[in-house]
């Protein structure tokens, strides 16, 4: 049960990090080119 919760939180953290990287990858180039 604890292991399942651990995998669940890891999945959410990985999705959150992936989302932040995607947003930064989209917006940062526009900021730096201006």
Q: What's the overall geometry?
A: rod-shaped
Task: Let me know the number of strands.
Answer: 0
Major β-sheet, in short? Answer: none
**Radius of gyration of CA atoms, rounded to a whole number:** 15 Å
Structural class: mainly alpha
The average pLDDT is 83
The number of helical runs is 1
Q: Helical percent range? A: over 70%
Low-confidence stretches: none
- Into how many domains do the coordinates divide? 1
> What sequence of helices (H) and strands (E) makes up the elements?
H
Please give a structural write-up.
The chain has 34 residues and is an all-alpha fold. It has 1 helix and no strands. The termini are far apart.
Summarize the structure.
By secondary structure, the chain is an all-alpha fold.
Write the layout of secondary structure elements.
Blueprint: H1 2-33
Structural features:
94% helix, transmembrane helix, transmembrane, membrane
